[in-house]
Amino acid sequence: MNQPDRHHSGGRGAEPQALVEHGRAGYARQAWREAWQALAAADRQSALDGSDLERLALSAYLLGRDDEYLDALDRAHSAFLATGENLRAVRCALWLGVRLLFRGETGRSTGWLARAQRLLEHEQHDCVERGYLLLPVVNQQMDAGSFDAAYAAATRAAEIGDRFADADLSACARHLQGRVLIELGQVARGVALLDEAMLAVATGQLSPMVSGLTYCSVIDGCQQAHAFRRAREWTDALHAWCASLPDMVAFSGVCLAHRAEIMQLRGAWADAIEEAQRAVERCEQVRNRRAAGAALYQQAEVHRLRGAFAAAEDAYANASRCGLDPQPGLALLRAAQGQGRAAATAINRALCATSGGLRRARLLPAYVEIMLAQNEVDAARGACDELEDVAGQCASDELDAMAAHARGTIALAAGDAQAALVAARRALQGWQQAEAPYMVARVRLLAALACRALGDHDGARLEFDASRTAFEQLGAAANLARVAALENPAASPGSHGLTRRELQVLRLLATGRTNKAIAVELFLSEKTIDRHVSNIFVKLGVQSRAAATASAYEHNLIRAL
Q1: Which of 306, 324, 342 is the last residue in one of the domains?
Q2: How far is CA 204 from CA 212, 232, 475, in A?
Q3: pLDDT per residue over 49-58, tens digit each?
Q4: What are the C-alpha distances in Å from 153 to residues 118, 211, 487?
Q5: Which one of 324, 354, 377 terminates a domain?
Q6: Would you tell me how many other CB atoms lie within 10 Å of the CB of residue 105?
């Protein structure tokens, strides 16, 4: 709410000093709303000093009142300069620069960071602020791909933090060292440094601001390293921390976005959709477009896996508007819609624009799948070789499972069912340990096909049954239809009696488009599309669009174009 609560703030007639004392007490208890209400009320009656403006700023930030945070911190900076407290003014300028950088306001951010650096040049003695000003340098070097320089800057910052016994700086610097090492492929060392930084958070050694920033960055680093179980552990801890501070808004959106991703991996798809939507709302409140884009991408992924292609299309588009490249999900959506050429073009574009083994590893499994669908076996094999190299360097169980699954699909396509089964068993173990039921179901489908090719029909039946049951429980409609089609390959795609135009209409209908939208795309009248849809229903023996879509997948008609 915009006006202070009279009960907590002392009301309109309360003395400014009493309000200040009340605000300080709330701040000390981490009662951020109470602190903000009292300090804001006091500030309207009499200007606060620099320290209380800092308290007002942080309280506003944690409540999601971003513009008020920037305004109060700007005023705190001026107040400290007026009283000759230059180093405290430096810190205000630093945090202003960092926050504006996260908001994407690069010009203002650079200005504040330059002002902090200029003020620091007037200081003759060593000070901890020199270490803090190295932190944005680390991020800038990482963005430029200068990882050796970034690691050197992070190491200097950590040394300064240790020398001055500043836990916030030491934790920030060490977790950045870990992020750089992960980028360099030294995942085990990098994750160990992330864990070390998180120990300081878990034991309450860090300020609320730095605790939240460290939580979010460490979880992001774990996910980048494909250390999903570690990411899950720290996300649970972040959720508990946010729950312990019910007033806090600032980091809750990022927490919800991470939880949505983990729920999606663990098969709790309905919960993932709900959590992602809450994440979008919270992230938009604090203008965190990057996190909002990540949450929208998770929504799109669940919609795609469920077969709700129109909803997935919208969510990928919204993620893109937030500045997030919606790959590889969007390319996989195109493949599922039967648009193989578009899928191949999209995944090729994304892979060519991506450098760094771990970043490319996120795209490579989708690349293998799409290339195999296009009968580009050599291209798929080359991508699988690269994925195996990255997995070998990073010692990640999840990457090993991805690589084994890719190798198995390639072996099956090449006619080596025994090698495919061996790879499937290896991938199955990895995904079971990661508690990822969708991936387990996909691997078991691969194992079913390999067993059948080897003449082990009992083994194939068991694997088909396990895969079908898992897809049913998840609500993975397209995968479920694929299981049905693969179990009964005698169902001929040509036996449907549909014309080529009707197949085109069916493909678009299966994406969730309306008749009007199909008419626009095919440059036909809506009346003509109505007639085609009616004919499709008769020929397939169905009475609804949903049933037509299911039949299309079951009989592999989406790929019959």
Answers
A1: 324
A2: 12, 20, 41
A3: 999 999 999 9
A4: 19, 21, 57
A5: 324
A6: 16
